[in-house]
Design brief:
Aminopeptidase; acyltransferase activity, transferring groups other than amino-acyl groups; GNAT_dom; EC 2.3.1.-; GNAT family N-acetyltransferase; eight-stranded mixed β-sheet
């Protein structure tokens, strides 16, 4: 086999790059894939990142190619140094995502391609002369962010290059909407449906007092980007007044949300919790959720 070569992304790489990204997405969340249009748009701008994307000054996409086949790819960002940029992003560089074929006995050079691509990424960050170097796994698909535990081959590449996990670990949970609690009357309690910060909000009231609320988002993908995520929704917020803990209000709100999601044609619901919040995780597991994966947020280049 010829040695892999690393070069800037070209538009005619788009189909192979999309296939490589979708292979990684499929290992994290079932039934989700992205289109070529989604990938191309993400290389130019990331509208879902409405806070951080305006801070980006430069973008670069690199691929590792072997026999005219894209075996690894990475997307890099350089953030501006102005006062409008949050301090931890100011003059920072980031590997926004990095994907590569996992090593295999019949393809021993896949590890070489990944290491060559990582070396090129670090060289680009050095040319940008950034203050700090971050890494993530935020491919342009719903749910996929941080470094999912389902990608041990990427973790090895990051760690070998000197990146260290310095942030939190997030647990991603998934439930079949049909398995969530069925709505049940709760005397003295009413449910109001309104627009919330992160989707449609269902608020439980006792008289004029709000006891808690849940928000569900059924727009995990922008329609014009043609992401295959039909039937998928997520919990944007779930809050219960401390005085109402232990009264089963969480299950009532989940039941109301589930009834609405069935009307929307959504059949799966995602939730996200910090790994150290055992009570929140146990609540969701008891309501019909299952742990889908864990993902490690915030990686920083700290070579030993």
């Amino acid at each position: 086999m010829p040695a892999p070569t690393v070069r800037p992304y070209r538009r005619d790489d788009r189909d192979q790059l999309t296939d490589l990204i979708n292979a990684h997405v499929a290992a994290v969340v079932p039934g989700v894939s992205v289109s070529v249009n989604t990938v191309l748009s993400d290389l130019e701008r990331q509208p879902r990142e409405f806070i951080t994307d305006p801070w980006v000054a430069e973008r670069a996409t690199l691929v590792a190619e072997q026999r005219r086949y894209v075996v690894a790819a990475a997307h890099l960002l350089r953030y501006r140094s102005g006062d409008e940029v949050a301090e931890n992003y100011r003059d920072a560089g980031e590997i926004d995502w990095f994907v590569c074929r996992p090593p295999a006995s019949f393809r021993p050079d896949s590890e070489e391609a990944a290491d060559q691509l990582m070396a090129a990424c670090l060289a680009q960050l050095a040319r940008w002369n950034v203050r700090v170097r971050y890494a993530d796994g935020a491919v342009p698909a719903p749910v996929v962010h941080g470094l999912p535990r389902n990608w041990p081959h990427i973790r090895v590449v990051y760690e070998r290059a000197g990146f260290r996990h310095v942030g939190d670990t997030e647990v991603i949970l998934l439930a079949q909407v049909a398995a969530l609690p069925a709505p049940a009357p709760r005397p003295g309690t009413t449910i109001e449906r309104t627009l919330g910060e992160c989707g449609t909000r269902f608020t439980a009231h006792a008289g004029t007092r709000a006891l808690g609320f849940i928000e569900v988002d059924t727009h995990l993908a922008r329609p014009e980007r043609h992401t295959r995520a039909g039937g998928l929704a997520d919990i944007g917020n779930l809050h219960i007044d401390p005085s109402s803990h232990g009264e089963g209000l969480e299950h009532r709100l989940l039941a109301e949300a589930a009834a609405w999601l069935r009307l929307c044609g959504a059949d799966r619901l995602l939730a996200y919790e910090q790994a150290d919040d055992a009570a929140a995780i146990d609540l969701l597991l008891g309501a019909g959720f299952r742990e889908l994966t864990r993902t490690d947020r915030r990686w920083e280049h700290r070579p030993r």
